[in-house]
Amino acid sequence: MLKIALDAMGGDFAPEVNILGAIEAVSDSEIEVILVGDEKKINEFLKEKKDFKGKVSVLNAEDQILMDENVSTAIRRKNTSMRKAIELVKEGKANAVLSAGNSGAMMALSFLLLGKLPNVDRPAIATVMPCLKGHFILLDAGANVDCKAEHLVQFAYMGDAYHKALFNSSNPRVALLSIGEEGTKGNEATKEAFRILKDSNLNFIGNIEGKDIFFGSADVVVCDGFVGNIVLKVGEGLAEALMKMLKREIADVITGRLGYIMIKPAIKSFRKKVDYSEYGGALLLGINGTSIICHGRSSAKAIKNAIKVAAEMAKKEIYRRISESLQNTEEMNESQNSINGLLCS
Amino acid sequence: MLKIALDAMGGDFAPEVNILGAIEAVSDSEIEVILVGDEKKINEFLKEKKDFKGKVSVLNAEDQILMDENVSTAIRRKNTSMRKAIELVKEGKANAVLSAGNSGAMMALSFLLLGKLPNVDRPAIATVMPCLKGHFILLDAGANVDCKAEHLVQFAYMGDAYHKALFNSSNPRVALLSIGEEGTKGNEATKEAFRILKDSNLNFIGNIEGKDIFFGSADVVVCDGFVGNIVLKVGEGLAEALMKMLKREIADVITGRLGYIMIKPAIKSFRKKVDYSEYGGALLLGINGTSIICHGRSSAKAIKNAIKVAAEMAKKEIYRRISESLQNTEEMNESQNSINGLLCS
């Protein structure tokens, strides 16, 4: 039985959707959820529900972090639901933690309380995105804004390990997001990272351009957090804007309304495929534990899916795999350095 | 009568689409086009066409720059069609130049031969992009990969002047592309640029997030060339991928095919609105002349539209406006510095 700590007070529709998501997640799985937050509010909501078979419990937290609160002050408060949820993992009382609340605070607190893995300079946010051929992993999606080449290289290793764990893949294609396919195209950080990655033991397929990521040309797309966050949000916004523009055009055509009714099941199925809530939040890679950041607008379904992904990643001990993967890199680099040292001496 | 120099040999479908685009552009306007390239090939194509009323002429160039050629060697050759076309502007024999060829070479040669404007450190590529409420200008779309705050500030001024010239607007809303609306969110360069821009005389509306650009929340969106190029190409790729995914879903639904026929005029009109070829290429801002870089896959229609935009920008002397706008900034900064000097002394 895996125990998942959920910050019940985080997110735009908290605590309702979090509680509903938790109940849905435990109903057909070997998962227990600990809801952390305002005990009174949560219990009031829970008492109307009878179908969670004792697999949902509550841990009281008087305080909570608001969505737009300043991170540096918010993380100092001791009794917030987010902090208490993460502490459950630290104390070994839960296998993973998730929150749809203030993402900056979630990142900072996870880092602070759980610590980072050896050989990791900076933890990264990894998101699963839909594309023509299934999905790809994009990282960093917003944890680090000014990155050096060595950070991008670490992201590549972490993304590789995550893809293998999440999709049971054996040799995911790893690419650097840049502005041209040749290794000479890009900014200083990507050009240097390209040189390091092409000699790595990853299945590095080189640079990928923005136009190709949604066609499934790579399984792991690596970039700094500034670029990654913009790509993530451009994707979200553009998909929504395009559907609105298309609907407006359809309304302007005489046969459009009838046609729209006929293609509506297709649009519904399409929306489901590009809907972020199907993919269960973003995993924080590089920290010593399993921590998932959910979209602020998460629905109950999104929370349910995120809980399941959290349980799976905790079960597969993704953080241990990443640690091992980076350990190998470190050893490789060291032996390479010794060889270089011998050659130069 | 405005004279436009066109690199007839540039682009994936050269010279045919370039010649056709030129003929279409001159047919209903006060524009003359000088086709620069392989005289024999061009004339062979031209002789079958009779409807250009002597407004299309040819200048021979024996050599041409290939699409994927190394820029630094390509720009040294003296007889390329691209170089000769730009020289026409330098010599005052044409009012503007355009090419759908190697964009790196077009940028470097325009910069080299025409020179940059005073007060500009780096020229930028400005593209017009469709959104829910019309269009917005994105810059830099790929000229500068590693930017400092002062470069972003110059882009903001250049984009403002371009928007005013292109859309006859009086006070375009200028925004910085970043990862949060607050000025404290972003990377080092955007945070510093935010501080400078909020005290500028531009209509600076602050940061804009990736999800909002396609909803028309800003008229001018400023970012470095690495980010801008990725956003441009993510937009292009995602729109294409989404339409493919939607079509696949429609084909899977029983009533889908009939529905699709009924909404087809809407899809056509939609495609036209999001089609890059409607917006006539990207203008190189900050150089001493009018130079337009067209998409390598430009159709005849795209070339025609680009020629018309080139003529309009030449007529409005956009580069002089930018120069004046940046001159004002310089003077403002100087007087601000004098005031600061007085206060500190």
UniProtKB/TrEMBL annotation, chains A, B:
Task: Give the E.C. number(s).
Answer: 2.3.1.274
Q: What pathway annotation does it carry?
A: Lipid metabolism; phospholipid metabolism
Keyword set, alphabetical order: Acyltransferase, Cytoplasm, Lipid biosynthesis, Lipid metabolism, Phospholipid biosynthesis, Phospholipid metabolism, Transferase
- Asked whether the keyword Lipid biosynthesis is assigned, the reply is yes
One Gene Ontology term from the biological process aspect of the record = phospholipid biosynthetic process
Give the location in the cell.
Cytoplasm
Report the GO molecular function annotations.
phosphate:acyl-[acyl carrier protein] acyltransferase activity
Which Gene3D superfamilies did the record assign?
Isopropylmalate Dehydrogenase
Q: List the residue ranges forming a coiled coil, or say none.
A: none
Q: What class of enzyme is it?
A: transferase
Q: Which domain of life is it from?
A: Bacteria
Q: Got a GO cellular component term for this one? A: cytoplasm
Q: Which reaction does it catalyse?
A: a fatty acyl-[ACP] + phosphate = an acyl phosphate + holo-[ACP]
Quaternary context: Homodimer. Probably interacts with PlsY.
* Function of the molecule: Catalyzes the reversible formation of acyl-phosphate (acyl-PO(4)) from acyl-[acyl-carrier-protein] (acyl-ACP). This enzyme utilizes acyl-ACP as fatty acyl donor, but not acyl-CoA.
Q: Which PANTHER family does its entry note?
A: FATTY ACID/PHOSPHOLIPID SYNTHESIS PROTEIN PLSX, PHOSPHATE ACYLTRANSFERASE
Q: Which family does it belong to?
A: Belongs to the PlsX family.
Protein name according to UniProt? Phosphate acyltransferase
The protein's organism comes out as Thermodesulfovibrio aggregans
Taxonomic lineage from the root:
Bacteria, Pseudomonadati, Nitrospirota, Thermodesulfovibrionia, Thermodesulfovibrionales
